[in-house]
């Protein structure tokens, strides 16, 4: 018996229950010592045995049976699986969407995927169906679209008795929120984060990618008046395979579906909205959420369109290019009181003068107009942020 406790008032002696410490009885005795005294204990036991002895075949067989009988096969952890995809590790939790985002892989070719997991929390069959429709909105939207480089690639949506799942293709890169903060989420490593270009040229390219993604969505049949409604750094993935960063819209959980009411108060009952979402939401979207607008047929649909996303895009652009947020709080946003633009010290003067002109800054400011009709359209913006 070996013990390692150090909470003792004195240094213990090696002792044996079978007799004298210097004349132990190995056949019946049990040795007790501290870990560092184990060699002394072994030496003492060996000293009681004369010449070395060798076990005969019968003794070896008995010893082998005893050892085999006590050997336990190590338990191999069972991987969670859903529709041919296995969970590898949790990456992070999106508190606004109420979902866990896991790293996963397909079987048998080990295709790398994201697995978004939502809990099933409503018992009513009608409400359960509505929740599936809204939570799986990501799948509902993306399965209609051909693949586009600035939109994450959709694989499959699945519901079970306890959870809802959306599975997406996973590529190397990081979320924009990680690049802005310099702090990795989940299993993203710091070294991997630091190797992704995030200079002024890369930031302008990311902003252009986001505009192209919005343009693509609004070009799809039935989505001409739609809105993405979740333009925030946590919903933007920056893919990087060693050449040029490519920004992708990652979450479609809030996308306005054509002709569909996409707000259900009971789905958010007891939960507060994430401040991170409110920071980037347009004024008209905040007003809609707060108003609980209804018609004679029930809840009213959000009447805004991509101009709402353009406002959110400008908040991100301001943060990426000026190093701060344009509005100190929601009240300032709702009244149009924005901060003064200041060139960030992180970029060189020559780089800023060459790539970020006063016309670029003017366009960003115009996107933050309180009245959506006064904001520039996508085509105009793309000319400045190709």
User: What is the percent of helical residues?
Assistant: 25-40%
Termini, distance in Å?
73 Å
- Strand residues, percent: 15-25%
Please name the CATH architecture of the largest domain.
Orthogonal Bundle
Which strand order does the major sheet show?
Answer: 4-5-6-7-9-8
What kind of sheet is the major sheet? 6 strands, antiparallel
Query: What is the H-and-E element order?
Result: EEEHHEEEEHHEEEHHHEEHHEEHHHHH
In CATH terms, what is the fold-level topology of the largest domain? Transferase(Phosphotransferase), domain 1
Number of helices: 14
The top level CATH class name of the largest domain: Mainly Alpha
Low-confidence stretches: 1-13, 24-28, 264-271
Assign the CATH superfamily of the largest domain: Transferase(Phosphotransferase) domain 1
Gyration radius (Cα, Å) is 31 Å
Mean pLDDT, nearest integer? 79
**Outline, from the CA principal axes?**
elongated
Number of domains: 2
Structural class: alpha+beta
What is the number of strand segments?
14
Topology of helices and strands:
Blueprint: E1 2-3, E2 15-16, E3 31-34, H1 38-47, H2 57-70, E4 81-82, E5 85-94, E6 99-106, E7 112-119, H3 125-135, H4 137-142, E8 154-159, E9 163-169, E10 173-175, H5 176-181, H6 190-194, H7 200-218, E11 236-239, E12 246-249, H8 275-280, H9 283-291, E13 294-295, E14 298-299, H10 306-322, H11 330-335, H12 349-355, H13 358-367, H14 378-384
Helix pairs in contact: 7-10, 7-14
């Amino acid at each position: 018996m070996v013990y390692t406790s150090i909470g003792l008032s004195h240094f213990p002696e090696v002792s044996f229950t079978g007799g004298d410490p210097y004349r132990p009885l190995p056949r019946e005795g049990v040795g007790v010592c501290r870990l560092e005294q184990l060699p002394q204990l072994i030496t003492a036991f060996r000293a009681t045995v004369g010449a070395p002895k060798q076990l005969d075949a019968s003794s070896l067989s008995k010893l082998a049976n005893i050892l085999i009988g006590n050997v336990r096969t190590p338990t191999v952890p069972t991987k969670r699986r859903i529709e041919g995809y296995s969970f590898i590790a949790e990456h992070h939790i999106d508190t606004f969407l109420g979902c866990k985002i896991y790293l996963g892989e397909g079987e048998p070719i080990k295709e790398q995927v994201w697995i978004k997991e939502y809990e099933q929390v409503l018992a009513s069959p009608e409400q359960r169906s509505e929740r599936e429709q809204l939570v799986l909105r990501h799948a509902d939207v993306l399965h209609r679209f051909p693949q586009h480089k600035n939109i994450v690639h959709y694989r499959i949506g699945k519901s079970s008795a306890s959870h809802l799942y959306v599975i997406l293709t996973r590529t190397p890169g990081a979320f924009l929120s990680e690049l802005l903060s310099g702090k990795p989420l989940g299993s993203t490593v710091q070294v991997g984060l630091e190797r992704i270009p995030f200079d002024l040229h890369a930031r302008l390219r990311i902003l252009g990618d986001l505009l192209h993604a919005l343009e693509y969505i609004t070009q799809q049949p039935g989505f001409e008046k739609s809105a993405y409604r979740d333009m925030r750094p946590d919903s933007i993935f920056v893919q990087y395979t060693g050449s040029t960063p490519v920004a992708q819209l990652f979450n479609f959980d809030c996308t306005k579906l054509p002709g569909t009411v996409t707000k259900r108060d009971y789905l958010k009952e007891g939960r507060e909205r994430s401040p991170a979402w409110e920071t980037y939401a347009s004024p008209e979207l905040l007003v809609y959420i707060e108003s609980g607008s209804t018609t004679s047929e029930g809840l009213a649909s959000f009447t805004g369109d991509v101009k709402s996303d353009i406002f959110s895009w400008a908040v991100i652009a301001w943060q990426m290019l000026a190093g701060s947020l344009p509005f100190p709080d929601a009240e300032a946003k709702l009244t149009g009181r924005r901060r003064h633009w200041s060139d960030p010290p992180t970029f060189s003067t020559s780089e800023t003068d060459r790539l970020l002109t006063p016309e670029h800054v003017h366009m960003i400011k115009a996107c933050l107009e309180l009245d959506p009709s006064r904001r520039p359209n996508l085509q105009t913006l793309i000319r400045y942020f190709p």
